[in-house]
Amino acid sequence: MTDRNQQLFDRAAQVIPGGVNSPVRAFRAVGGTPRFVQRAQGAYFWDANGQKYIDYIGSWGPMILGHGHPAVLEAVQKAALDGFSFGAPTEREIELAEEILKHVPSMEMVRLVSSGTEAGMSALRLARGATGRSKIIKFEGCYHGHADALLVKAGSGLATFGNPTSAGVPPEVVQHTLVLEYNNVEQLEEAFKLHGKELACVMIEPIAGNMNFVRASVPFMKRCRELCTEHGALFVFDEVMTGFRVALGSAQSVYAQLIPGFQPDLTVLGKVIGGGMPLAAFGGPREIMRQLAPTGPVYQAGTLSGNPVATACGLATLREIAKPGFWDALSSKTQSLVDGLKGAAAKAGVPFAADCQGGMFGFFLLPELPQNYAKVMTSDSPKFNKLFHGLLDRGVYIAPALYEAGFVSAAHSEADIAATVQAASEVFATL
Ligand code: KE4
């Protein structure tokens, strides 16, 4: 049978670099042919051959309700009839802003933008503008979008600043970016001792979904907060992935239960708040956010910022996930998936560690959960690739890279979870 996925991939590669508009989609890490999605509905999508998959990527997080939720679809269709884009303010941007602020009390104001990268880049500029400082700390294994200053890998040794992870990023652009080891308190202490008063911010993924699933330890998170406060640096939570995905109050509400009174200074959001349409945001206290143009000196702008169709999609999504019982149902479904996979791996004698929070999960073919990037990368990637393809052949679609998280939606049924665990147990037996 002609493989329409391969035909499309070959054709795409003629006109789009790598045949994809975002690198991870090309299956380079796992090999094989990317599945070209024809349509999606609920917890499933169908590829160009008409093959059905249980979808655990959900557009890398946004599709928390599943694909094509009726209330969201209706909101988008209605909004589209009223106009696609105006470049002028609308009431719905206020409604979406108010809905976001209602659930994230650390934010008093929010600016809507069109991608997580744009939100992270803008939050970084705001932190530097608000503090008048240039240096920043990020952590190895955390991804904050592809703004130049954030495409940095750990320099050799602590005191040196990061080196670009990408061609085209001049060294001088990343000379102020210090990359530390995630969950390493002593490195953090040392960095603040050396540079504390020059630091504009510390930027972190509170649960690092770009290392698959690594939680910031409570002592580490506490110390980040204390040192930022002590030295006048802003603590920036990149919740593009975890925001409204791990809890209604995002990851910061999870840490606030573990660390009394905990709050970041700025928060970056994306994915779920757009419900699958291009929409992201960043926000924080009024006195910081007011530094943004047009009320302050930090410039930031966007043609499609607060787009009327995207805000309709995001607002309808947030209203659904705020309904009573949503999070108990989603969390227990995600937990039963993780417990089922652990049981299947144990039965097959495969080293397997997994964790989850709300609708986000991750697993490692390792005996225990890794605490940092170096440990994550000790995973057996050939074995992961075999697992990936074994699941794919059985109609289960997980992230095509061992350092990416997985996502469960409200549309995933217990039967989907059971079918996934059954597929995994068959594949574990072959590893
Ligand atoms: P976008 O520019 O892709 O909307 O957001 C960038 C971003 C920022 N911060 C975090 C924590 C993120 O996870 C992301 C984007 N996540 C990736 C998945 N690891 C998106 C998928 C892709 O790059 O194709």
TrEMBL record:
Localization (cell): Cytoplasm
One Pfam entry name: Aminotran_3
Post-translational modification N6-(pyridoxal phosphate)lysine, affected residues: 271
Cofactor(s) required, per the database record: pyridoxal 5'-phosphate
A single BP term in Gene Ontology: protoporphyrinogen IX biosynthetic process
GO MF assignments: glutamate-1-semialdehyde 2,1-aminomutase activity; pyridoxal phosphate binding; transaminase activity
Keyword Repeat: no
GO terms under cellular component: cytoplasm
EC number, as in UniProt: 5.4.3.8
Keyword Isomerase annotated: yes
Record family assignment: Belongs to the class-III pyridoxal-phosphate-dependent aminotransferase family. HemL subfamily.
NCBIfam families registered for this protein in UniProt: hemL, PRK00062.1
Assembly with partners or alone: Homodimer.
Name of the protein: Glutamate-1-semialdehyde 2,1-aminomutase
Source lineage: Bacteria, Pseudomonadati, Pseudomonadota, Betaproteobacteria, Burkholderiales
Gene name tied to this protein: hemL
